[in-house]
Give the backbone structure.
Amino acid sequence: MSGHSKWSTIKHKKGAADAKRGKVFTKLIREISIAARQGGGDASSNSRLRHAIQKARDSSMPGENIERAIKRGTGELEGSSLEEHTYEGYGPGGVAIYVEVMTDNKNRTTSEIRHLFSKNGGNLGESGCVAWMFAKKGLIVVGRDKVGEDEFLELVLNAGAEDVKSTNGDFEVTTAPEDFAPVRKAIEEKGIGFSLAEVSMVPSNTIRLEGKDAQRMLGLMEALEDHDDVQNVYANFDIPEEVMAEAAG
């Protein structure tokens, strides 16, 4: 798998027992509320809300929490006035980093994000400096031991997948964002388990990191993702899986 996919998969695997589940839920609630505010509370006609709800369910969020988040977004319940912003920069070894935040105080958040970059061997860049390296895609990772290759290729390609890569014991499926749900549904209906399924910003290329740069890069990722205003962090590093697993705990 690419470095991005490995990092995401490791995070998902440890998520069920993560002591920070409350923080995970907070970020999911924010995403649901923003999606509902922008596109309405009907998930059938709001793809962003549909994906946010599915992500919340994957994290075992109670249904009543999801409903309250939707109502905050549509104005039926009172909620804070959050705004979306993105930050772009570079990590150790020149790795490209793209950060999505939701905040009620952009100046404070900008200062804090800049500090996290500089403290962990990176630097915050100008808007647009790395965004061109990423594309929004559906991403699904399935272990090769779950299904035969020919059968799987036929299944996902017929369902609308753009590409399937086979690396390091996994099938990595990419889709256009609008085709993510039907491809995931086709996999689920066949009873095939997956280790990762999300709509993500996927890098067009990766930078291999090892040693000190790898450790510093993972430290920067953890610091950014732990920030209360940060929703998602994407980066184009490629670090050995055993190093990432150790860092992720």
About this structure: Residues 134-203 form a domain with the Alpha-Beta Plaits fold (CATH 3.30.70.980). The longest strand covers residues 134-143. The chain is about 45% helix and 25% strand.
